[in-house]
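User: Please work through this fold.
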Amino acid sequence: MSFALTFRPDLFLAFEILSFGTYLIVFARELYQRNWRRVFELLSCTVFGMILEIGNIYLAHTYSYSSNFLIQILGVPLAIGFGWATIIYCAMLLSDQYRIPWTLRPFMDALTAIVLDLSMDAIAIRLGFWTWAIPYDQEWYGVPFENLAGWIFVTIAFSFFARFLRTLNPKRRATIALLVLSPLFEYALLFIGLIAFSLLAILPHGINNWGTLLQFNYRPDFRILFDPEVQLWKLIVLMAILTEVIHRVIMAIARHHRNYLWRFDLLSFSIMTSFHVFFFVLLFTSGIYQKLPYLVLLGIITMGLHLLLHLLPYLLRPKFVYIFRDFTDSVQAQEQRFSRFIQRVFQ
């Protein structure tokens, strides 16, 4: 099935506004609270997002972005880099609420991110935001399986390295150097993960075709990359990775359920929800749902999983969760500051 919308500049502008707007909101909050380490992590994630997109486009040659985005760097919309940073960072804010060991939080971050992409990417390509090198009716509704694996690897790479750096002394020169170079290290981890994924998927095909197994091409041979046998193995490897991610998240929650949750990050929940709602609304306003009604069911399922990840602690232990505690404390603090200011003015 081949289906794509004609160019609609308002959709591109709306996506850029969503990406830039949510990013600035997160950045402003961390800046206001003077969380300098978190501000740096957000900026680092932005650089990482742009590096991975530019690198993937010029190395993989399997997709390209529309030229209709307003701001682009080397063929990559700046809104994509900002979107990566916002999504990954909000996923980390969510997993921080669970108080599970930091080594397990990257898996929850990856699950949060992939739940969004499962529905978002299939809609985005039909809106013309970006284009893959396969037809719309292959693999994940026109999205290669390696892209879904890439979302998992991207999130785990940044989340794990960022959390590891939090355990180091920030005043040491070696730590500062790692902080500055962290986007490059994270991209290296992503690259290793994607290479391993590709090798596992192509190896069975290569065993049966020794001639192609011994060849190397800078530009991937699409006849091999999207061969039906390779596509099947890509799906098998992806399901194995996703199963392991889900397994680690469930075990972490089960083992450490007594420790969470003392607060509810309303900002993280609102921003992640806005991305889900944005593409779900476009599914209907663009008319895609008429040709692909199963994307409606997929959107409902991913939205439900998104809500479950955010609200699970409250559902399990409602007496120990204060959803608006941070918001209430912040309002009370501002009221006290304003009251003191008024008293000083009239004294």
Notes: The longest strand covers residues 63-65. DSSP finds 13 helices and four strands in the chain.
